[in-house]
From TrEMBL:
Organism ancestry: Bacteria, Bacillati, Cyanobacteriota, Cyanophyceae, Synechococcales
Protein name as annotated: Multifunctional fusion protein
Taxonomy, superkingdom: Bacteria
Binding residue positions for 4-CDP-2-C-methyl-D-erythritol 2-phosphate: 256-258, 284-285, 306-308, 382-385, 392
Catalytic activity: 4-CDP-2-C-methyl-D-erythritol 2-phosphate = 2-C-methyl-D-erythritol 2,4-cyclic diphosphate + CMP; guanosine(37) in tRNA + S-adenosyl-L-methionine = N(1)-methylguanosine(37) in tRNA + S-adenosyl-L-homocysteine + H(+)
EC number: 4.6.1.12, 2.1.1.228
Gene: ispF
Keyword presence, tRNA processing: yes
């Protein structure tokens, strides 16, 4: 097994030697589960004083850590494929048990950047993937925070802790604090071990422990308890689809765009419109982009292809065809497959003409051809803010989303 790699940039690297004396954490290093490497930015300075800090630009109290030694120290560290760089700073996100699990499971290398003095030159922050804080308080440096994370991550690695089950039941593992523990003697200075723990009834013991976990969390950490309650409620409201042999709904997406040209009608949603420049949409049929995007969405929901498959642009019978008639044919095909249209949401992108006055008529045309309520048809209009083909009035496009239900 490859050792989990830990690399630390610190101006006080000797402080990390104490990790070797922390029981199972020390054994994780000695048995090759993890490997700790220390880098002092002072060793990467160029001046004889090994200066790693300087006065801040703009004035102010304190000294700021310089970019050069930290960048050079960082760039000397070998990078494994699954690496995460953590900066220890009171400005970071608060450390949680979920963070420790995530780093232990998803990565094979953690790099720690520990600060001192007033803080980092802001450009050093660009090295970090995450900024982490132990809480809303200030320490003299980031070493204690880094050692805390190293401790928390190593104990989650396979082989560090003897019993993997002990990691599951402990505090914060699932959002609750841990239940009370007792051992011999049964009675100590008038304080008795709860009888349920002596009963041998494992189901009753499990229930008691869960009740105590909830009670203790509610009393000591009401913030955690509220989050746990919300999570439990969310889990209970999830829909169980295991009994379905097929999905009762399908969603389809459609898109179409046509060029604006002279000597062609401008028809959208079955409504004939007037363009200020006398332009219309170029196409084999009437080039109604709204209806075409809608038909593609319906066919796509059932993996039936697109409108070109059913109404080829080289087929004379569809020359200048009314797209509403084509929509009706697609609607019949959907019904033959055993589905019905439940909802339509569409948007037309055009600079001109203004479509809003005609939206209700478009919705009614679509609803009539599909045999559904007008309230089930959504049509919106927008411009492209003078950008792209639509913005330059080279064309008009449409997007559509359709929800189908099995009948």
């Amino acid at each position: 097994m490859t050792a989990y790699r830990l690399d630390v940039l610190s101006l006080a690297p000797d402080s990390f030697q104490s990790l070797n004396e922390l029981g199972v954490i020390g054994r994780a290093f000695s048995t090759g589960i993890a490997d700790l490497n220390l880098y002092n930015p002072r060793n990467f300075t160029k001046d004889s004083y090994h200066k790693v800090d300087d006065e801040p630009y703009g004035g102010g109290v304190g000294m700021v850590l310089k970019t050069e030694p930290f960048f050079e120290a960082f760039e000397s560290i070998p990078a494994l494929p699954k690496r995460r760089v953590l900066m220890m700073t009171p400005q970071g996100n608060k450390l949680t048990q979920n963070d420790l699990w995530r780093w232990a499971k998803e990565y094979e290398q953690l790099v720690f950047i520990c600060g001192h003095y007033e803080g980092f030159d802001e450009r050093i922050r660009t090295l970090a993937d995450e900024e982490i804080s132990l809480g809303d308080f200030i320490l003299t440096g980031g070493e204690l925070a880094a050692m805390t994370i190293i401790n928390g991550v190593l104990r989650l690695l396979p082989g560090t802790i003897g019993s993997a089950e002990s990691l599951v039941d402990e505090s914060h593992a699932d959002g609750l604090l841990e239940h009370p523990h007792y051992t011999r003697p049964e009675i100590f200075r008038g304080l008795n071990v709860p009888k349920v723990l002596l009963s041998g009834n494992h189901a009753a013991i499990s229930t008691w422990r869960q009740e105590k976990r909830e009670q203790r969390t509610k009393e000591r950490r009401p913030d955690l308890y509220e989050l746990w309650v919300a999570k439990e409620a969310s889990n209970k409201t999830r829909i169980d689809l295991s009994g379905f042999t097929s999905v009762p709904f399908r969603i389809g997406n459609g898109y179409d765009i046509h060029r604006l040209v002279t000597d062609r009608p401008l028809i959208i949603g079955g409504v004939r419109l007037h363009h200020p420049e006398g332009l219309g949409l170029d196409g084999h049929s009437d080039a109604d982009v709204l209806i075409h995007s809608l038909m593609d969405a319906m066919l796509g929901a059932l993996s039936l292809g697109d409108i070109g498959k059913y109404f080829p642009p080289n087929d004379p019978q569809w020359k200048d065809a009314n797209s509403l008639m084509l929509l009706e044919k697609v609607g019949c095909l959907i019904k033959e497959e055993g589905w019905k249209v439940v909802n339509i949401d569409s948007v037309v992108i055009a600079e001109r003409p203004k479509l809003k006055p005609h939206i209700d008529a478009m919705r009614q045309n679509i609803a009539d051809k599909l045999g559904i309520e007008t309230s089930s048809v959504g049509v919106k209009a927008t411009t492209n803010e003078l950008l792209g083909a639509e913005g330059r009035e080279e064309g008009i496009s449409s997007h559509a989303v359709v929800l189908l239900e099995k009948t």
